[in-house]
Known about the structure:
Layout lengths: L9 E7 L6 E7 L2 H39 L1 H12 L3 H5 L1 H19 L15 E9 L2 E5 L7 H13 L2 E5 L6 H12 L6 E3 L4 H10 L2 E5 L2 H14 L3 E4 L4 E5 L5 H13 L9 E7 H16 L20 H16 L3 E4 L13 E4 L6 H4 L6 E7 L2 H9 L3 E2 L1 E5 L3 H8 L6 E4 L12 E2 L2 E2 L2 E2 L2 E2 L2 H5 L2 E9 L15 H16 L10
Parallel strand pairs: 4-5, 4-7, 5-6, 7-8, 9-10, 9-15, 10-13, 12-13, 15-16
Antiparallel strand pairs: 1-2, 3-21, 8-19, 11-12, 14-18, 17-20
Helix pairs in contact: 1-4, 1-5, 1-7, 4-5, 9-10
Bound molecules: nicotinamide-adenine-dinucleotide.
Amino acid sequence: xxxxxxxxxxxxxxxxxxxxxxxxxxxxxxxxxxxxxxxxxxxxxxxxxxxxxxxxxxxxxxxxxxxxxxxxxxxxxxxxxxxxxxxxxxxxxxxxxxxxxxxxxxxxxxxxxxxxxxxxxxxxxxxxxxxxxxxxxxxxxxxxxxxxxxxxxxxxxxxxxxxxxxxxxxxxxxxxxxxxxxxxxxxxxxxxxxxxxxxxxxxxxxxxxxxxxxxxxxxxxxxxxxxxxxxxxxxxxxxxxxxxxxxxxxxxxxxxxxxxxxxxxxxxxxxxxxxxxxxxxxxxxxxxxxxxxxxxxxxxxxxxxxxxxxxxxxxxxxxxxxxxxxxxxxxxxxxxxxxxxxxxxxxxxxxxxxxxxxxxxxxxxxxxxxxxxxxxxxxxxxxxxxxxxxxxxxxxxxxxxxxxxxxxxxxxxxxxxxxxxxxxxxxxxxxxxxxxxxxxxxxxxxxxxxxxxxxxxxxxxxxxxxxxxxxxxxxxxxxxxxxxxxxxxxxxxxxxxxxxxxxxxxxxxx
Length: 510
Ligand code: NAD
C-alpha cells in the first residue's frame, strides 16, 4: 500500500489461545483516521478492478484459492491458536473457503452479465432495455470470531468477484486468521483492492462510516447498531445475525442418524455456529430412545486442547465471556427444574465447557429462548407434529432448522411451516456449504442473505437501467412538447389497450 496512513493511535490487541491463555499474537487497534485512509486508498484502485471484468478477476481469485490450499496447514495452525478449536473443526475453514472462491470465480462472469428483459408492453418495445450490474466501490465486511478464516471466505470473495474493493474488519477476538487472509491476497500480487482494519467495535463503526455497502455478521445487538448507522448514512447493508435453531425429531425418523446428526450439529465448533442445533423437540413415542442415544453419543466425546493430531471432538469456547453465557443458561435451566443428563459445567481448564444434554426444559428458560452459542443440547418431549412446529416457531430468531423423519413428504411439509431461512432434512449445517442456496435469517436472525447463486454476487452491485432506441428516432416523441390532443389520445389509447390486454377497453376517441 502507498504509505498514506496515519499511525494507529490506540493500544494494540493481544490475542490469546482460549484453550490455555497463551499469547499467540498482537494486532493494532486501527483508529477512525486509519480506517478512513484505507478506505480512500481502496477507492483509488477499485475502478481498475471493476473495469478488468470478471474473467480477469477470476485469474486472481483462482490464484488466491491456490494460495489458500498451498498454505492450509499453516493457516489452520493460526486459526486454531486463536480459537482453541479442535484440529477437525479448524481444518474445515480453508478448504471451505477455497471451494467457495472457486465457485464465485467461475460463475461471476455469468452472474454479472447484463440482463435484457423483454419489454412488458408495446410502448417500450421500441427500446432496447438493459439492466447493468455495477459493483459498489468499497464493501465493508465485518466478521465475528467463530469462523475467523471461513467468514472472510464466505463474504469477502463474492464482493471481490463482483468487482468491489473490500475493507475487512475481523473480530478483535480472532484477528490473526484475517491477517493471513489479507496477507495471502497481497502475496499472490493481486491488485490492492483488499485491505484490513483490525480493532474493536469503534474500528468496526469507522468501517461502517466509510464504506458503500456493509456486510455484517455477528450478534443481534451489534447488528442493530450497524443497521442504524447505515440508516443514518443511507447506505445498504446485509446482516447475518444469531439463531436459536430447532431440531424436530419425529417418531418415523432414523433415530441413530438423528442422534448422531444432532450431536454433531449442536456441538461442532463447541456449539459456536450461528446455525448450530440449539434446541431439540422429540415426538413422545421415541423420546426416551432418542434421549438415550443422544446422551450416549455426547458422553463419548473427547474434549481437550488439540494439536495437529485430530485427537479431540470438542474444543474450547472462543472467550471466557462466551463460556460464562453457557454456564448461565445451564444454571438458569437447572434452577427452574431442568435436569442435566451429561456435562453441565466448565471443565475448569481454559474456556472449556463440557458437552451437555439437558431435559425437562421449557420456554421460560434462557437456554430455550436466548442464543446460547455453546455445547448444550436442551431436549423437549412433544405430543405431535403440530406441537413440534408450534414450539419451533415460538422464537424471535429464524435462522435455520433441522427436521428428522423417514417420510419425505412430511419433511417437506414440516419445512414449509417453519419460520426460518433454511431447513435441513435429515442433516445438519449442510446448507451453509451450498453457495447456490440463500443463507439468511428471518425474524431477528438477519436482514438480507449471503449466497444464493447469482444473488450472492449481485447484492454487491447497484443495478442500473439503460434504455436505448431500437428503431430510428424522429425529432420528437408523441408526448413531447407541444402538447397535442390527438397524439396524447393516441398514446393513452395504446396504453389502455396494453393494460387491458385487448380491444374491449381500447377507448379510442373517448
Ligand atoms: P459481535 O456482534 O460482538 O461482533 C461482530 C463484529 O462486529 C466484530 O468484528 C466486532 O468488533 C464488530 N463490532 C462491534 N461493535 C461494532 C459497531 N458498533 N459497529 C461495527 N462493528 C462492530 O459478534 P460476535 O460475538 O463476534 O459473534 C457471535 C455472533 O455472530 C453470534 O450471535 C452468531 O450467531 C453470529 N453469527 C452469525 C452468522 C450468520 O451467518 N448468521 C455466522 C456466524 C456468526
